[in-house]
Specification:
The protein has 300 residues and is an alpha/beta fold. The chain has an 8-stranded mixed sheet, covered by helices on one side. Strands 4-3-2-5-6 form a 5-stranded parallel sheet. Helix 5 crosses helix 6 and helix 8 packs antiparallel against helix 9.
Length: 300
């Protein structure tokens, strides 16, 4: 099952780094692992927005600490701000702000020390977490302890029920995961992408999946026979299953739409468009980052 997509040109984000206390002071911080920024994560942001100014706290460097194999993120780093901006309509017209904490700096904190850090160092006014959230060294703390500790430190604590996945087939096909209870998860998004099921991916994400490419890669070719050719080494996030994605479109500056198709094989991704004129080719060649947005309409 392969779908169409839209191709979007954008500039990479260059966030300004400020002390955490200046960024999140007085805010409501959603806690979790926000790889996919899926509908479950969005629900945490929605709850945070109801209690105050919403923030997401993401950890960086977990793979290096635990020795995990490197893997492509579901959402490209340069595209995360756009996704969060799209949540504004769900969050009282306020886009959640994401800030990153080096995991090695908090890994050895006890549950109490972690909450104390949120309160005294970051100055947050409250936290939001999913019902299965665990925290502290070796995940020693659960949500009941989180609520208790937040009360001690004068913080609001809001526990959100899991957003359940209406499509439960992953239980039979997906990886064995002791935390798997049928909730929407990044694991399910990865599995759906591996299947090339873009309709399912969109249901889990609450939006269409966008694949980002580094156009500064020397092997990216534009213009030959109205085709864009890019090696998979230029991808900045996780692509769907290899195959043909027809009935697609190129979108420039969120306005100009050009019908196209895409082919993904083991080494490259190709985008073909009859209307890929010289002016458009120049725009592509001058672009630093290119986005491919996959449609969720099934092929007839």
């Amino acid at each position: 099952m392969f779908m169409g997509f839209k191709l979007i040109l954008c500039k990479p984000n260059h966030p300004v780094k400020l002390p955490f206390s200046l960024i999140v002071s007085g805010g409501i911080v959603a806690l979790g692992k926000f790889d996919a920024l899926h509908v479950g994560h969005r629900e945490l942001a929605v709850q945070a927005s109801k209690a105050g100014i919403p923030f997401l706290m993401s950890f960086v460097g977990m793979a290096e600490v635990f020795g995990w194999e490197p893997r492509a993120p579901i959402v490209a780093k340069c595209d995360r701000k756009r996704v969060l901006a799209s949540w504004a309509s769900h969050c009282g017209n306020v886009a959640p702000t994401e800030f990153h904490v080096d995991f090695s700096s908090v890994r050895h904190l006890s549950p109490r020390q972690f909450v104390e850090k949120l309160s005294k160092e970051f100055g947050v006014r409250g936290v939001v977490a999913g019902e299965n959230y665990r925290f502290g060294y070796k995940a020693a703390g659960d949500t009941s302890e989180l609520v208790k500790l937040c009360e001690e430190y004068g913080l609001g604590a809001y526990i959100v029920s899991s957003v359940m996945d209406r499509n439960q087939c992953i239980r039979d096909k997906g990886p064995n995961n002791s935390k798997e209870r049928g909730q929407v998860s990044s694991t399910r998004v990865r599995h759906a992408l591996a299947e090339g099921d873009m309709r399912y991916v969109s249901e889990l994400l609450g939006r269409k999946h966008r694949l980002m490419l580094n156009m500064r890669n020397q092997e990216v070719l534009v213009g030959h026979e109205n085709r864009i050719s890019a090696p998979k080494s230029s991808l900045l996030n996780l692509s769907p299953k290899d195959g043909l994605y027809d009935n697609c479109s190129l979108l420039f500056n969120e306005k100009t739409v050009v019908p196209c198709r895409a082919i993904i094989d083991t080494t490259h991704i190709y985008v073909e468009a009859d209307e890929l004129g010289s002016r458009t080719q120049v725009q592509l060649q001058n672009c630093r980052v290119l986005g491919i947005e996959f449609d969720d309409t099934e092929k007839e």
